[in-house]
Amino acid sequence: MFQFAMPGPTVAAGPQRVVAELGRGFDGWALASWFVQPNAWLASHSPIECLALHLPDVLAAARADRFVTTG
Length: 71
Prior knowledge:
71 residues, mainly alpha, two-stranded antiparallel ribbon, 4 helices, 2 strands, 55% helix, 6% strand, globular
């Protein structure tokens, strides 16, 4: 549900930006796992925990992980 803006059935901008930042190097399962697993770039917090209050940090973590994954 984190990916939807409430009260309507619209996709929230934050998660869309993170997915775009991660790029094509992550398939569906890897993408879902990335959002829920602790992330070293986020002081071992999961991206989903930080998404609402620290979007710039989550975007930076996504950018770093994309670089590590795809070079």
